[in-house]
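Quick one: structure for this chain?
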Amino acid sequence: MSRHPVIIEDTGLGLFQVEVRAQGTSFLSDEPISSGGLASGPGPFDLLSAALGACTVMTVKLYARRKSIAVSHVQVVITHQRDPESRRDVFERSIFIDAAVTGDEMKQLLAAADRCPVSRTLGAGADIVTAHSQTAIATGRRAGDETYMRAVEQACDELAIG
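Got it. Here's what it folds into:
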């Protein structure tokens, strides 16, 4: 159902390093050295925090624009921890909004932040459906890799090439 699939695959370097591809760009994700990683990129919970923060900034800016509220800058700081008693994940979000607004307008902007799609998803939980794929998507990342070669052969078969 995703309009833009995100492809994540191991790089073959280190225990945890992966390359993430989304919408024509790519970056590394990894774990810190203290956890056995190479510290070559943000970890999975950093990415989840980034998704929440990015969505918050975008939602606040969009809401302000629609309501003609002059907002010049929005900054969000996210921290993540697991509550030791409840074992639930807690994301603390601090929002700075640079705008000359009334107290009521600020309340509206902060309420908009709570309505960002990622905030709603994290708050409500989500269903995760897992399936086993028989072939990999041909990414060209590892041209000598057997997985890549099988994916290329599969793609050629599907297109009746070769």
